[in-house]
Amino acid sequence: MTPSGISRIPVVRSVLLVVVIWCAASFIYAPIFSVLRFAFAPEGDIGLGAIGELAGSRRVRTAIVNTLVVTGLSVITVNVIGIFQVAVLEYLRVGGRGFLRFAYSTPLIFVSVAAATGYGFVYGQTGALTRLLQSVWPALPNDWFTGTLAVVFAHTFLLTSFHFLFLRAAIRRVDYSTVEAARGLGASNMEAFVRVVLPVLLPTIFATTLLVTYKSLGSFAIPSVLGGRRFDMVTELILTLNSLRRPDMAAMLSIGLGLAVILCIAAMQYVERRGSYVGGSKTPVPIERISIASPVVNLAVHAAAYAIAVIQLVPIALVVLFSFAPARSIATEVLPTSFTLQNYVTVFSQSTAFVPLKNSLLMGASATMAGIMISLFVVNLAHRHANIGTTSLDLSFMAPWILPAPFIAIGLILTYDEPNLLVANRVLLGGFWILPIGYAVVSIPIMMRFLRAAFFSLDPALNEAAQSLGAPASYRFLRVTIPLVLPVMILIAAMTLNGILSEYSMSAFLFNVNNKPLSIALFEGARSANPEQAAINLVYISLIMAFSLGIVTLADRYGLGGGK
Amino acid sequence: MIELDEVSVRYGSHEAVRPTSLRIETGEFFTLLGPSGCGKTTILRAIAGFVPVASGTIAIDGRDVTGIPAERRGVGMVFQNYALFPHMTVAENVAFGLKVARKSGKDISRAVDAVLEATGIERHGRKKPAELSGGQQQRVAVARSLVMGTRVLLFDEPLSNLDAKVREDMRHEIKRLQRDVGFTAVFVTHDQEEALSMSDRLLVINAGRAEQSGTARELYHSPATPFVCQFVGAANEIGRNVARALGLDTERRHFVRPEHVTLAQAGDPDGVDATVADVDYLGSMTRVFLEALGEPLQCQVLSDPSVDRLAAGMSVKVNLSRERILSFGGPS
């Protein structure tokens, strides 16, 4: 770096600070303010009319009931399957553990609208499994897989990723010597599990339950794709109300959803603070898997473990297989009999098929870049200068973490559907950039959490060592801090881009003809009866899964939340 | 030369270092010794410029550096964990400061080679820090500062992460480098053996206050305070019963080193009656834990067959060398 380069740094930093504050004001505070204004004072006078109208609408009441029923059922079914999976992988001696681990890890790569479309492809009206089931049971209606059943079923097998990540990590932290101690004091294996292991796991089970609740309350892609035309959940209804030009009701409903989500997050943080049991042992013994003594129980456990694996793998396998099959075979064959690369060629050569992929990559890359820059700046500032100003800035960008995506999306719509001084009197709604802005806003909190952890894990002595060797602050930041957090930055960027490729909640609210993303193309394709469109969808899903698989493998290798 | 004039450091309302004055001569090996949390590292960090002083001044070679940021003090520091940059090779770590100073590539290469050779790590220049042993990492940390031509090197408990054998070797290595290169070393440790064996002079610190400075022998044989007496080397505090039996002033505190307590013959009229409570065999030496007139007392004697026969519960007589008793407080 040149001497003039060093002297320019404070100026650059000041300019960046102004830009970052403008971002917070324009894309976080202004949208929040708009939602509150439209919810409580749509005509200028403060009132609660929107609540009355929402309460009086049968469709709204049904959507709320649907959301609560789906959430309640999902919490039970996801916990049953998730805890069983963790027990099979970590506590019980079950054969084929590697295969089961692979199968149970698929919810990490088969997510959101891609997974919903995949389930629709397999279980839907023309799905391979529907045809297979109809060959055994001809009376089965074509649309058997719809409504609450379909949504809860998909939730059950797609939301177990929290158990796979967090509950497995928790059970691995259990000191097996405590189990041995219990057995030495006369407890059976089962008693030791119930009295020693389970109490240690309960806080994590509760935390994962809250995560499932949080995800289920805000579920959007799955009910939209699998719920059917007469099935609404709250998020879908917010979108509908907005498109029916009732922004006041949409805003009020998004506030209600936001409050429910905030409640979940507050409860999770309470559990996180209170519910960890730290063993006092300096040499904890890793958990050992136990053999099931009863042959009957052993057989039943194996059967259930493999049945779950098959349920989770079949949609993925069929999606990948049919992505290589001629389009005409999609609605006619249970398994493809011939293979071709034509579907992939179509996606990459036909502009209508390629544009959503290109849009998603472009918007994802822009949002990721902007998010990383803002997160890096804010986290570094708050790390080096802890004061009210930097803490406020830090909290401002963390705010979207406790607000559901529809809340932010409605806020952006209400703020930028007319010329706004904050963006030089331009209308952002209907343009290309409104969606990447939304992506960035909802991605920044998670980026900041990871970056903050990376900054706090840095040995402060490194910075001091560089300082004692004469390096000024900017040099230390560029040559010591950045290289050390770079692997985390690259991983976060890749994970964010991966998430954006199949992001549905923000996309459904903010997309338009200029920026139609992959997730919307998938959604539209799922509703199309055209086999060519279905084939393109399968290629999209396969590409998203391949990308996700790469990211998950990378994250697992570098210890960012994955787990073997 | 480093001079601290009434330097104090505060963390909020807590006074981590009370006003302390200190003068460290050029080329001296000076150690700050004290228990954990006494403020010794804080003094070191104040000299380095990492913590601001609440009052007083710090001067290095006659230049007041009190308000000068760390990067412009020209003081090298070796950290407890060495703080080697993990993403750089050994040579890049050593070259870091020279690059900051914008030396030419040729000068950097020449200086790095020379200092790597001087510190005995010339074969490891291309390795990353994680590939080195603790002792080698230590050398890189020293080399990184020495290459800058630093005349003052601060060591923050640099031997605490090494195993016993390497620690012993590194003590001699650091002393050799300091002697050969001639830099002024300020060394922080809580290990009295380390401090006594390496230092030209020491400062003993307790609860943020300087207790006594001097050579190792001065501190050991002529401690100024009961704390120094007990912290530098082992010492028995003589209880009231034994003090009375020896005719000592019971209003004062009296100490005696374990090696100055000897086992006496059974009929020795000057001996004090004691019972053996426990015996620790230490190889060449044996430590005997006694109860003399109902008060604990330790003695350390050369291991020999007569000592080997001692066992818990045996009655013995012990002698305390009057001229070796260290007394504090009240009129002498």
Query: From the helix content, strand content and strand pairing of chain B, which structural class follows?
Result: alpha+beta
Instruction: Give the second-level CATH assignment, the architecture of the domain at 58-231 and 285-340 in chain A.
Output: Orthogonal Bundle
First-last Cα distance of chain A: 42 Å
Provide the residue-averaged pLDDT of chain A.
87
Q: Kindly name the structural category of chain A.
A: mainly alpha
Spell out the helices and strands of chain B N to C.
EEEHEEEHHHEHEHEEHHEHEEEEEHEE
Largest interface: A-B, 17 and 27 residues
- Classify the fold: give the CATH topology of the largest domain in chain B: Rossmann fold
Q: Which CATH C-level class of the domain at 58-231 and 285-340 in chain A is it?
A: Mainly Alpha
Low-confidence stretches of chain B: none
Estimated helix fraction of chain B: 25-40%
- Residue-averaged pLDDT of chain B: 91
Q: What fraction of residues of chain A sit in β-strands?
A: under 5%
Quaternary = heterodimer
Main β sheet profile of chain A: none
Number of helices of chain A: 24
Can you walk me through this structure?
The complex is a heterodimer of chains A (564) and B (332). Chain A is mainly α and 564 residues long. In chain A, 44% of the residues are buried. The two termini of chain A are 42 Å apart. Chain A has helices spanning 3-40, 49-56, 58-91, 97-105, 112-123, 128-136, 147-158, 161-172, 176-184, 189-217, 221-226, 234-243, 247-274, 295-323, 342-349, 351-384, 388-398, 405-416, 434-457, 460-468, 473-501, 505-510, 518-526, 531-557. Helix content of chain A is 73%, strand content 0%. In chain A, helix 10 packs antiparallel against helix 13. Chain B is α+β, with helices and mostly antiparallel strands and 332 residues long. Chain B is elongated and about 80 Å long. Chain B folds into 2 domains: 2-222, P-loop containing nucleotide triphosphate hydrolases (Rossmann fold); 236-328, OB fold (Dihydrolipoamide Acetyltransferase, E2P), CATH 2.40.50.140. Chain B has 10 helices and 18 strands. In chain B, helix 2 (90-100) crosses helix 3 (105-118). The A-B interface holds A 459, 461-462, 464-472, 475, 479-480, 483-484 and B 48-50, 69-77, 79-81, 83-87, 96-97, 100-101, 144-145, 148.
